Amino acid sequence: MANQLDANRPLRVAVIGSGPSGIYAAEALIKQSAVPVLVDVFDRLPTPYGLVRYGVAPDHQTIKSVTKAMQKVLQDPRVRFFGNVAYGRDLTHADLRRHYDALVYAVGASSDRHLGIPGEELPGSLSATEFVAWYNGHPDYQHLPIRLDAQGVAVVGMGNVAVDVTRILAKSADELSQTDIADHALPVLAESRVTDIFMLGRRGPAQAKFTTKELRELGELHNADVLVRPEELELDEKSAAAIADQPAMLKNLEILREFASRPPAGKPRRVHIRFLVSPVAILGEGRVQRIRLEKNRLDENLNAVGTGVFEELEVGMVLRSVGYKGVPLPEVPFDERKGIIPNQGGRVLREGQVAPGEYAAGWIKRGPSGVIGTNKADAAETVRLLLEDAPSLPLAPEPDPQAVTRLLQERGVQAVGLDHWLRLDALECTQGQAQGRPRVKVTSVAKMLELAQP
Length: 454
Ligand code: NAP
Prior knowledge:
By secondary structure, this protein is α/β, with parallel strands linked by helices. The protein has 17 helices and 18 strands. NADP nicotinamide-adenine-dinucleotide phosphate (NAP) binds next to helix 7.
């Protein structure tokens, strides 16, 4: 028999994670009227918006304006925000199943991939995702010991994250001080001795993952010249054929060729965009001092193959920017190889079978790809299936919205509601205004909790 869901017994949905995919899932749930819903959005941090706050570059404020629409979703009377509530720590899988008819895991991909080369564990070798979290004021990374006391930095990878960290390293303190970059990062970047940033792509320009807008920005830096070797832009036949009908890739190539033709303007810093080189070892005594690269060629499948020709670059830091990676959640199936929750269009699979009432959205569903907006369609697909399943889902025994609030209180969990967050948000923005910045981020959870109090 189909479930009788109505205004008195709406479908209770818990969304785990308040980044783009979680909020877009909540939005898709409230934008339909076929099934009455009440949605609770949980985040382990007191602040919502996930990578919009902690991933998007501080000098890309226009991208962050997407939070206005996200805030509207959280302000809907059918949605509640529970910040500072961690899945697995404050609420277990069993707790959620007792209070909710459907769970949507939208936790993103909080770890990163490794290179698997000698020296990767040396101090000074870290992931770009950690570096990004550090300068964006993520509470877990505020104490990262970042040293920018050598002239060279290697950034491994040719995606937009690599471009972001390269740009932040290339910008001057004056430029950065107008952003919402974390207060602990600004003095370190202001005193940076970095002059040469090497972006290292293992394949050619036709395989680079960055988008045109981001690439173009590297050529517009006030503080840094962009240097490209013309010989590294020469395409093999297969690469040329592969991008012949791809306007965005052709545009990237055109921009790179223009970069290669520029005489250096003698700016204080240099961004070197290098292709067809793979790091094979990170070297140094006690910390990173050099990186050894092997020159590559592309095989018939356009994979990078070493040529046995090596070179070394003097660098004091190596940022691997080779992709984010999902992390397993307690009691939730996980595909180690893909770094995602196994799923079919968002329906979670347990041992190959659809697990009723469990769903995934965003990077933990499809892997770390696409831009913020990609998560809208992704979450909408998941929610479409969830709503299709709603009439036949096993209903939660304790759906009363107050029951979960009581449970958190009993456990001494200091949940941060939307009103708390809005207070903290306003404080950050007011403090920022006084300094001509969009906001000054609070980076300690304890401080956030204190300031969020009425
Ligand atoms: P990405 O776009 O997947 O790029 C990863 C890069 O790492 C690729 O160039 C890849 O090269 C390289 N790589 C992987 N393994 C490697 C290895 N072992 N050795 C050397 N290189 C290796 O990932 P991302 O930059 O982390 O970005 C994640 C997502 O966020 C992307 O969809 C991105 O567009 C998005 N994002 C968007 C913005 C923006 O819109 N402004 C900003 C940041 C991030 P191969 O191609 O050879 O594998």
